[in-house]
Design goal:
This protein has 285 residues and is α/β, with parallel strands linked by helices. Helix content is 59%, strand content 14%. It has 2 domains: 2-20 and 246-284, Orthogonal Bundle (Helix Hairpins); 38-243, 3-Layer(aba) Sandwich (Pyruvate Kinase, Chain: A, domain 1), CATH 3.40.1380. Helix 1 runs antiparallel to helix 5 and helix 4 crosses helix 5 (209-284).
Amino acid sequence: MANIRLIKRRIKSADNISQITKAMEMVAASKMKKAQDLALLGKPYADKIYQAVQELGIHVDKKHHPLLSAGNPKGKLLVVLISTNKGLCGGLNTNLFRSVLNSWGKEKEIDYITVGKKGESLITRSGRSLVADFSQKTPFFESVPAVTQLLVDGFIKGIYREVHLAYNTFLTALKQIPTKKMLLPITAFEKMDIKQEVKFAEFLIEPSTHEILDDLLPHYLENQIRTAIFEAEACEHSARMIAMKNATDSALDFMQELTLLYNKARQEKITYEIADLVTARLAVE
């Protein structure tokens, strides 16, 4: 009898868990749609500002713009790590951290800026150098100006030779991939095809290309970080939605197995009781 009561309690617990995970799945699906819309809406603007930096950067002397020139060769490496504040999102953070450690795990002179408590916990527990953590301020994109100012100042002062961004890129609801991108020095326009049609250079620019880039480059960096945060948030909610769906399915499967086990135990109990009654009657006769 105790065994049957135990199985019934386990069935009830599995049912409660399935209800909770189903609710979390629905919440994550709603948040994923909003985060995905933000990421997609920002991409056209990100493409245009990227194009502007490419085309204007060709016509200036890099020496006059410290963000375009090579960093201090004796400086450190800085990584901006964007993770999540909460767990229950499958292997999303684990895959990102594995990619970061595989790329820079052996690097000695390296500092980290974290956006997300999971990333901050990794850097702290592993004994690595944490410069700043922006996990407390939510939503994360409100911290973009402060993060940008911190890394730009460090690069211009020669503290860092390179600045990299590490985050998860949203491809589909089922697939998110860890991504690493160099933010500084800005050398993306060097790979531009020289035969590509130049649009911005056809106009007379006032006050000058140099002065425009002075304001445009920090804004370009902010846009890169903000876009990465939107991508990471879409990845978080989609990964959590899939993880909660898998958890719900597992709980329901477990309930079915327990139900079969409960019915079997109950049938055995009834059979034993009938057998006892028959045995007792035969003994009386």
